[in-house]
Specification:
alpha/beta; TIM Barrel; two-stranded antiparallel sheet
């Protein structure tokens, strides 16, 4: 590939599918100058559009009691770029995180999805090859979500869709979401999935609820997509799950055991090619899990390296810590 221009954002995503964590994107002309060494593509990187934060700060603080208001109000594209440069991250494909853009009102959900997606598209235009975006959807609103898919992918030319693991306690394999996933399958869309909390909340004081519930909700929604047959029915949706698949690598044998309780016709309908096939064709980022030797051992045992992506969880996670941890893994 000598003498070629640097890859576009869409080429980046194609490269990701082939090379996993993106650590081999070294020395390509046209990339941002972030110093020597590897060039990293970060698929788990969050943004906080100013108008969204200004209107919804109380909601954001309610959901993340351990974070100060400044964690949201001080965020900017420039601060994101500074953190990326410290870690040698060439490109971040950004997304919204919980609580997302939908709080039970369709009109409001459509408004904030459009605002956030257009903000992300402007970031990508203002900083070529540094940012892409997984578009936010007001998912319980089927009509609004289908409209926003069209706008985000056809008009704004964003790189995929970003969803939460559950909405109104409904996991992603729920029948209510079938029309949206049918459209995403038709489009062969990339769908980045970030955890939220479908139940339980703060079951005991002193521990930040997402500490346990986020990885657990990722496992819930993956299992739900598997047992509902949603994975098998939508083979062209390319899912990226956060945090190495949550607790899934640790308890996968329990999920396999549960599948043995299905009747033969149920198993044929929901997972005709087997659990291993469905789980290993999905993608998983290494946010949070990369610095954890035990967690990484389980991830590497279950998933091929080709299915693993770099994820910083910025601005919450440390871009440099994850970069150092991934480099030590020698993937």
């Amino acid at each position: 590939m000598n003498g070629r221009r640097g890859p576009s954002r869409r080429e980046v995503l194609a490269l990701l599918a082939a090379i996993g964590s993106g650590m081999v994107l070294a020395g390509r002309a046209g990339w941002a100058q972030t110093g020597g060494g590897p060039r990293i593509v970060d698929t788990h990187h969050h943004i906080y559009p100013p108008r969204y934060v200004g209107a919804n700060l109380p909601r954001l603080l309610e959901g993340t009691a351990v974070l100060p208001a400044s964690a949201y109000t001080n965020w900017s594209p420039q601060s994101a770029l500074e953190q990326m440069d410290k870690a040698g991250v060439a490109t971040a494909v950004v997304s919204m995180t919980g609580p997302g853009v939908w709080w039970g009102d369709n009109a409001e959900g459509r408004k904030w999805a459009r605002e956030c997606n257009e903000f992300g598209a402007r970031m990508a235009q203002d900083h070529p090859r540094r940012f892409g975006m997984f578009a936010a959807l007001p998912l319980p609103d089927t009509e609004g979500s289908l409209r926003e898919i069209t706008h985000a992918l056809d008009v704004l030319k964003l790189d995929g869709i970003g969803l939460l693991t559950s909405y109104e306690s409904k996991l992603l394999g729920h029948d209510a979401f079938k029309p949206v996933f049918d459209e995403l399958n038709r489009r062969k869309a990339i769908v980045f999935v970030h955890p939220t909390m479908s139940c339980c909340g703060n079951v005991f004081p002193g521990v930040y609820p997402p500490t346990i519930e986020f990885p657990t909700d990722t496992t819930r929604t993956i299992t739900n997509l598997l047992f509902s047959g949603a994975f098998a029915r939508r083979p062209d949706v390319r899912f990226i799950f956060s945090h190495g698949g949550g607790t899934l690598p640790i308890i996968v044998q329990r999920i396999v055991g549960a599948s043995r309780g299905l009747k033969p016709d149920e198993r044929a309908a929901t997972m005709p090619r087997g659990i291993e096939y469905e789980l290993q064709r999905q993608y998983y980022d290494l946010a949070s899990v990369a610095p954890n030797p035990g967690g990484m051992a389980a991830v590497l045992k279950l998933f091929p390296v080709s299915q693993l992506f770099y994820g910083s969880d910025a601005p919450f996670g440390s871009t440099t810590q994850i970069a150092d941890a991934v480099a030590k893994l020698e993937l």
